[in-house]
Structures are given as structure tokens and as C-alpha cells.
Specification:
Layout lengths: L2 E3 L6 E3 L8 E3 L6 E4 L6 H19 L3 E5 L2 E5 L1 H10 L3 H30 L1 H6 L1 H14 L5 H16 L3 E4 L1 H19 L2 H8 L7 H4 L9 E3 L6 E3 L19 H24 L3 E5 L2 E5 L1 H11 L2 H31 L5 H18 L4 H12 L1 E2 L3 E5 L1 H19 L8
Antiparallel strand pairs: 1-2, 3-4, 5-6, 5-7, 8-9, 10-11, 10-13, 12-13
Helix pairs in contact: 1-3, 1-7, 2-3, 2-14, 3-5, 5-8, 6-14, 10-12, 10-15, 11-12, 12-13, 12-15, 13-15
Bound molecules: zinc ion (ZN) (2 copies).
The site of one zinc ion has 8 residues, from loops.
Length: 412
């Protein structure tokens, strides 16, 4: 018998009879609990392999080129981050390299290895410690994969500079677009809890007693890394399967942390809007533009769709996210029992907030691409402004705050 405790509402459900191609959803909040592809092993292997090939192709050729008055500049994906590092903006270049190149590559290679272990018994039995370590790493890096956000950032920066010069896309750009689609498919096909169950099947004897019980009532402990459910005991501290620390339901402590992270993002929000996001220097004149300034400039140039994208991603989403998170935390702090319909309404708001948060990174990627691409000595150059880093901090802290929040508080 296999039990999964819903990480969003805390109810424990039996998901034993799951067949290939089926998905188990929480009976109370309908969130995804466990699922496998129609071809549970070969499917993810094929998608991950195809993604990896497209990824290598996107590094091998020129990504974009830019030409103005007969002078041209060409960049590869890797150069974009390298140029940023040269401007003493190492944090931004590390952010770009990790979220767009390093983490996706690690994710794909590790996933291929794990699924190969499922299908190969010799490999499976030989490298068990390594498999556990890899699975732990994968669950940590999954929220930070930003290839899809980066692709939209590239398209926005394309429109931004199209008014100033001729821009053309290289082979790598098309390879990257294919890579993005395949990567999104791979991430949605691979289920890490399912992989844990295949590689390290554990069955507890008293699981039938836990089924239908709530985590909030201290009936069980659920591992946030591998999903294994344990009978509640004061003496159980670590997960039997992956040795991760088991967290008890501690609403007060959780709220302190999420409020602190949210407060940090509010503090960074002010300089992110007051300082210039980037400087454009053209024929000796240097001009800074803030986030709002950039939106107004695009609007005046007639690029309404792009102006709206930046307005939404950089101004509306961060504010909406901060307000809705404060609203959720404030409610979670005060309400000690809630009807199911209302809990569900709050959970929906939380899901939307968590989903849209990462899209605010678009503007950061736009700055990174423009800075890397537009560097023509004496004629035109773009430099990153201090707001880029502050804005990245706003996005990261709101994401951390939303990820740390225990939504089970709303299901008491
Ligand atoms: Zn649920
Ligand atoms: Zn575990």
C-alpha cells in the first residue's frame, strides 16, 4: 500500500492502484499527487535526450546578431553571461548562467541517469547512494529552471532593439526555442515521487490507518523530498528513505520566515524602481532608463504589446504578488478554521501567485541580452544599471517566500 500526503492541503491518500498513463490527484484540493507517462520510463528518456541535443545545438552556433551603420556584433548564449561578468555584475551573470544553462543541463543529465537506473537492474542496485543524492538535488533545482522565461525575454529584447538596428536570429536561437518546448515537456512528464517509488520502494505496515487523515492533526509526517509518509511520533526526526529532516506542522514558525522573506523583497522593490535598469550610451551620450521609463519609451515608440508585457511582468506582477502573499499570510495567521470552499479559494490564489512569480525575471533577461548584444565601440553600447540586481532580488525573495509558505495552514 502506498500513501501520499498532499503537500497543499495535508490529507493523506492511497495511490496504490496507479497504472501507466494515469494520474493521482488529491480528493480534496485536486492537486497533482503522483503520475507516470503512458510509457513511464522510455517517454521521459526520449524527451530528456531530445532536449539535451537541442541544448547542445543552442550553444554551438551564434545566437543573435545586431548591426548598425555597417558595424555588427554577434553573440553566442554563453557570451551573454560572459559580457555581464565583465561589467562587475557577477551576480547577474551567475543568475543567467545557472537558471538558463547550468541547472537545465544538470537536470537533464541527472534525469537520464535515474530513468536508465529504473530500466537497468544492475545499475539500479550498484549506485543506490548516488541515486538518492541525485534525486535530492533534482527536487531542489526544479523551481529554478527558467528557460521558458528566458525565451520570452529574448523575444522582448528583439523588439526593443529592432527599432534601433537590424537584428537577426542565429541557428542557436531556433535550437533554443525547440529546447525550451522539449524542456517544458520533459519537466511535466518526469515525476520525481514516482522515480523514488520505483528506485526505493518502501511500504509501511500501518499506512491503512493514515489514509484519509490530516497532516495538520499530527497523524503523520510527510517527507518533503521523497514524499514518504511516516506514522507520527515525537522521536521520528529523519526520513527512513532519504534521511531528509522531517518537518512538523508549525504554522507560527513558518509564518515568521515567510513574512521576513516578503519584507526583504519589499525593501528591494524601492531601489529597483528608482535606479536605472540599464544605461544606453550612443555617440558619447549616456542615458539611464528605469523600469517605468522603459515601458513609457516602448509605448511612445508604438510597441504596445511589448510595453504591456514589461508593464505586467515588471510592475504589475511583483506588486500583485506582494499584495496577494500579504493577504494570504495575514489570513493564515488569524483564521483557525475555514469552510472547504473558502480554503479552496485561498489555495487557488496561492497557486496563481506561485505560478506567475517567476515570469517577472523577463526584464532581467532582457537587460542581460541587450547588454551582451549591443556593444559597438564608439557608436552604441548598453550597460546594466544598479536596479537590475535589486529587481532580481525582489523576484527571488518573493519566489522564496511563496515557496516556503505552508498552504496547509488554510486547511485547518
Ligand atoms: Zn490536497
Ligand atoms: Zn524522504
Amino acid at each position: 500500500m502506498s500513501i501520499i500526503s498532499c503537500h497543499e492541503c495535508g490529507i493523506a491518500s492511497d495511490v496504490d492502484s496507479l497504472k501507466a498513463g494515469e494520474q493521482a490527484r488529491c480528493p480534496r484540493c485536486h492537486c497533482h499527487l503522483l503520475g507516470a507517462d503512458r510509457d513511464p520510463v522510455q517517454g521521459p528518456i526520449c524527451y530528456a535526450l531530445a532536449s539535451l541535443i537541442a541544448f547542445i545545438a543552442s550553444l554551438a552556433y551564434p545566437f543573435m546578431s545586431f548591426s548598425i551603420q555597417g558595424l555588427s556584433q554577434q553573440i553566442s548564449l554563453y557570451q551573454a553571461a560572459e559580457v555581464l561578468a565583465n561589467f562587475n555584475n557577477n551576480t547577474l551573470s551567475v543568475l543567467l548562467i545557472f537558471s538558463v544553462l547550468v541547472l537545465p543541463a544538470i537536470y537533464l543529465v541527472c534525469l537520464l541517469y535515474l530513468y536508465s537506473c529504473i530500466s537497468n537492474t544492475v545499475l539500479k542496485n550498484r549506485t543506490q547512494n548516488l541515486q538518492k543524492r541525485i534525486l535530492k538535488i533534482l527536487s531542489r533545482i526544479k523551481p529554478w529552471l527558467m528557460v521558458d522565461v528566458f525565451l520570452i525575454g529574448v523575444l522582448v529584447s528583439l523588439v526593443k532593439i529592432a527599432a534601433l538596428a537590424d537584428v537577426s536570429m542565429g541557428i542557436s536561437f531556433w535550437a533554443f526555442a525547440i529546447f525550451t518546448c522539449l524542456m517544458v515537456k520533459t519537466v511535466s512528464t518526469a515525476d520525481l515521487y514516482w522515480v523514488w517509488q520505483q528506485l526505493f520502494p518502501v511500504s509501511a505496515d500501518d499506512n491503512d490507518k493514515i489514509s484519509g487523515q490530516c497532516f495538520q492533526d499530527n497523524t503523520h509526517l510527510a517527507c518533503h523530498v521523497c514524499g514518504l509518509v511516516h506514522t507520527y511520533s515525537e522521536h521520528t526526526h529523519d526520513c527512513n528513505r532519504c534521511s531528509a529532516k522531517l518537518h512538523r506542522f508549525e504554522p507560527g514558525q513558518n509564518l515568521q520566515v515567510v513574512w521576513a522573506l516578503l519584507f526583504a523583497s519589499v525593501v528591494f522593490y524601492l531601489p529597483a524602481n528608482l535606479y536605472p535598469m540599464m544605461y544606453t550610451s550612443s555617440l558619447g551620450n549616456s542615458q539611464g532608463s528605469t523600469i517605468l521609463g522603459g515601458v513609457i519609451e516602448l509605448w511612445e515608440l508604438g510597441d504596445y504589446p511589448v510595453a504591456l508585457v514589461i508593464l505586467f511582468a515588471s510592475i504589475m506582477i511583483p506588486i500583485a504578488k506582494m499584495i496577494s502573499l500579504s493577504y494570504l499570510y495575514w489570513h493564515a495567521q488569524r483564521v483557525h478554521s475555514m469552510p472547504v470552499a473558502e480554503s479552496y479559494r485561498f489555495l487557488k490564489l496561492y497557486r496563481i501567485t506561485e505560478f506567475i512569480g517567476r515570469w517577472s525575471m523577463i526584464d532581467i533577461f532582457v537587460v542581460a541580452i541587450l547588454v551582451a548584444l549591443v556593444q559597438i565601440d564608439g557608436l552604441m553600447a548598453i550597460y546594466p544599471g544598479p536596479a537590475a540586481l535589486y529587481f532580481a532580488a525582489v523576484v527571488i525573495f518573493t519566489m522564496l517566500s511563496a515557496m516556503t509558505f505552508d498552504s496547509r495552514m488554510m486547511w485547518r
